[in-house]
Amino acid sequence: MEVYLLRHGIAETRGAAVPDAERALTPEGRKKLRVVLKVAARAGVSPDVILTSPLRRAVETAQMAAEALGFKGEIETTRALAPEGSPEEIWSEIRRLKDANQVVLAGHEPLIGCFAAYLVGGPAGMIDVKKGSIIRIDVESLGPRPRGMLRWILTPALAEAIAG
Fold first, then answer.
1. Fewest CB atoms within 10 A around its CB: which of 60, 73, 99, 114?
2. In this structure, what are the phi and psi dihedrals at residue 47, rounded to the nearest 5 degrees?
3. 162 vs 11, 38, 39, 66, CA distance in Å?
């Protein structure tokens, strides 16, 4: 299974006016995310399943991914991808997707980076995922503990350089 970890794009700043869960993507965040998703689509990302955190900025990121990557299904929301989720909870969600070849997960740091490290057997904190970045990790089986191989990381800056 190809697991794609997508950190939400740049969102509105934290403040008293907007609760954290309702922070939306900014125009700049949407612009950078579009470029990343365009390059990801050219790299063959075509998900069977998209899972997202319930927070607005992640949902908006998942919706943009669905559109850019030609996803026709229903985006699934899961608390496992919320900031307080855990790598083990996310792995449990993925393990139920036995028939999926490609799964996109839209979420937040530091959880997305911790989950990437969990998939490849590294220590939490070893992978820092920039806003709007996507990571591909191939997982060979859906056993109790993952055994993944990091294939690539695409940041907004790298996507911009590739897209020209």
1. 99
2. -70, 145
3. 24, 10, 8, 21
pLDDT of residue 14: 86
Residue range 24-75, pLDDT digits in tens: 999 999 999 999 999 999 999 999 999 999 999 999 999 999 999 999 999 9
Number of structural domains found in the chain: 1
Contact (Cβ atoms closer than 8 angstroms) between residue 41 and residue 66 = no
Instruction: For residue 37, give Cα distances in angstroms to 47, 76, 102, 104, 122.
Output: 12, 19, 15, 11, 26
DSSP state of 151: E
Report the CATH number at residue 139. 3.40.50.1240
Q: How confident is the model at residue 135 (pLDDT cuts 50, 70, 90)?
A: very high
**Total-model pTM:** 0.96
> Domain of 23?
2-163
Residue with tokens 């990121």: 61
In the chain, the largest separation of any two C-alpha atoms, in whole Å, equals: 45
